[in-house]
Design goal:
The complex is a heterodimer of chains A (about 250) and B (about 240). Chain A has about 250 residues and is of the alpha/beta class. Chain A has one domain: Rossmann fold, CATH 3.40.50. Chain A is built from 10 helices and 10 strands. In chain A, β7, α7 and β8 form a beta-alpha-beta unit. Chain A starts with a helix and ends in a 6-residue tail after the last helix. Chain B has a domain of about 160 residues: 3-Layer(aba) Sandwich (Rossmann fold). In chain B, about 40% of the residues lie in helices and about 25% in strands. Chain B is built from 10 helices and 10 strands. The chains are: A alpha/beta (about 250), B alpha/beta (about 240). At the A-B interface, α8, α9 and α10 of A face α7, α8 and α10 of B.
Chain lengths: ~250, ~240
């Protein structure tokens, strides 16, 4: 399943993050975060609690303004673009807790993302049937959104994101709170995205999923990247182990 | 002392703990570690009765699984929550008094004696007893939160991430005190993000993952066990050749 580092390195970079910085008061949430996303590659972004993973996704998708740094998509600097513009340019995302319109039906929720992303101009390689099947969702477009379980809502959000035919998909803990079957479906959806040459940035606490799915992993601690490499390298990296396990008494 | 068996906990419809068993013997420090969202705080909150749970929680032989937080605290099972939650607008001494008065009633409280005990353990709190809690450093606030629990004369202490946000030197000082409290005869159930530190000071360790205990054993053995790392960082599946 894993590409070798060499193979992974051959895919073309679609997004470059250049020294993203963000402070919240005295807390440095993102401290010169830099890495590159490649088309058709799954890039893991991990780190202990409060290490800046969600902040990074917010900076990339434009949900949060950055203090300094640049986001470059397909060679264009999009740092100043608003989040909806970034969505149109091909950045899709999901949220840790699904954000759906509770009073709207399935159709409105599904196509909200792709409508806003001006999908009519270019057709999606993903068919709705294919995505819904991978997600294990059997819904009529007129159904109420509230009949779905938490896990289904999270899968639904990924479907909504992929329908925009994104160049970059940002997933914020897609597996959190899901059962084993649903986690497999998340994996299936990610694989569909990759097959269609999207770059996937995966923030996830389920390490088994990250280690076995990602081609490359970046590790954050206190807002700063402390390691980047293929899963094997990350698993044996001393700085990473210390970030997760602590270091015992300094005496 | 505390025997938790087959504990299931719920946030709304979401099952957060899936049948957990944990034992804390008298005079023991038991470490409860595991990555984010593993269910560590949920376990303490379940014991304290702060969230919906089923199963058995035997405390000195009495099943408290259906009791209220007030009842649990009153019976000496005291919870120092993550993030300290001291009362910022009260002074250090007032914060400590709350720990005693809240369930003992003001008349019955032997404030002087209990205060002396806490001040002997944390001299810094004595120096600052008139200061507002908001003006304390993080380490001092953690001492205050623990001191407040000691004012309730704990028979068992549950500490949730006492090291969080503290400098390494402050953490070392704090953990000396935690061991000292234990040596005064108070068993401690310790939830910690700093896994190595927690294993160093405890006799027994449980590792939670996804709401289940995935590994348990003597801390001395587990500290050398590669499976601990796997619980945090995951592992690679065997490659199919």
């Amino acid at each position: 399943m894993n590409l070798s580092a060499k193979e992974a390195g051959q895919s073309s970079p679609v997004m470059i993050l250049d020294k993203l910085c963000k402070r919240f008061g005295g807390v440095v949430a993102a401290d010169e975060i830099s890495f590159t996303l490649a088309s058709g590659q799954i890039h893991g972004l991990i780190g202990p609690n409060g290490s800046g993973k969600s902040t990074a996704l917010n900076l990339i998708s434009g949900v949060t303004d950055m203090d300094s740094g640049n986001v470059i998509l397909d060679g264009e600097t999009i740092t100043k673009e608003a989040s909806y513009m970034r969505a149109r340019l091909g950045i899709a995302r999901t949220f840790q807790h699904p954000r759906l319109l509770k009073r709207c039906d399935v159709r409105t929720n599904l196509f909200l993302g792709s409508d806003l992303a001006n999908m009519k101009k270019h057709s999606s390689p993903f068919t709705l049937e294919q995505l819904m099947e991978a997600a294990g969702l059997r819904l009529d477009l007129g159904d109420s959104i509230t009949t779905m379980s938490y896990g289904q809502q999270k899968l639904f959000e990924i479907v909504r994101a992929l329908l925009t035919n994104p160049k970059v998909v940002l997933l914020d803990e897609p597996a959190a709170g899901l059962n084993t079957k649903e986690m497999e479906r998340v994996e299936a959806l990610i694989n569909i995205a990759v097959k269609n040459n999207a770059a996937v940035l995966l923030v996830e606490h389920s390490m088994d999923l990250v280690m076995n799915l990602c081609h490359v992993i970046t590790v954050l601690n206190f807002g700063r990247p402390i390691a980047e490499g293929i899963p094997e390298e990350i698993l044996s990296n001393e700085a990473v182990i210390e970030a997760y396990l602590g270091r015992g008494r300094s005496a | 002392m505390l025997k938790i068996s087959n504990l299931f906990s719920y946030y709304g419809n979401i099952e957060a703990l899936h049948g957990v068993n944990i034992d804390v013997g008298s005079n023991e420090i038991v470490a409860l570690i595991g990555s984010n969202g593993a269910g560590k705080s949920t376990l303490l909150r379940s014991v304290s009765g702060l969230i919906t749970r089923t199963g058995d929680i035997l405390y000195n032989g009495e099943n408290i699984a259906k009791q209220s937080p007030r009842y649990v605290a009153k019976s000496g099972l005291l919870h120092v929550p993550e993030g300290r939650h001291v009362f910022p607008g009260l002074t250090v001494q007032q914060n400590l008094e709350v720990g005693s008065v809240a369930w003992r009633g003001i008349k019955k409280a032997n404030l002087e004696g209990d205060l002396e005990k806490v001040f002997a353990l944390f001299p810094r709190l004595k120096e600052r007893h008139k200061q507002y809690a908001w003006s304390l450093s993080g380490g001092e606030q953690q001492m205050l939160a623990i001191g407040r629990a000691i004012m309730g004369r704990p028979k068992l202490l549950m500490l949730d991430e006492p090291s969080m946000g503290l400098a390494p030197k402050v953490i070392d000082e704090l953990f000396v005190k935690i061991v000292e409290i234990n040596s005064m005869g108070v068993p401690i159930l310790l939830v910690e993000q700093n896994a190595l530190l927690a294993m160093e000071v405890s006799q027994k360790t449980y590792i939670l993952e996804g709401g289940r205990v995935v590994l348990e054993g003597s801390s001395k053995d587990l500290i050398k066990d590669a499976r601990v790392k796997e619980a945090y960082l995951g592992k690679l599946k065997e490659k199919v050749v």
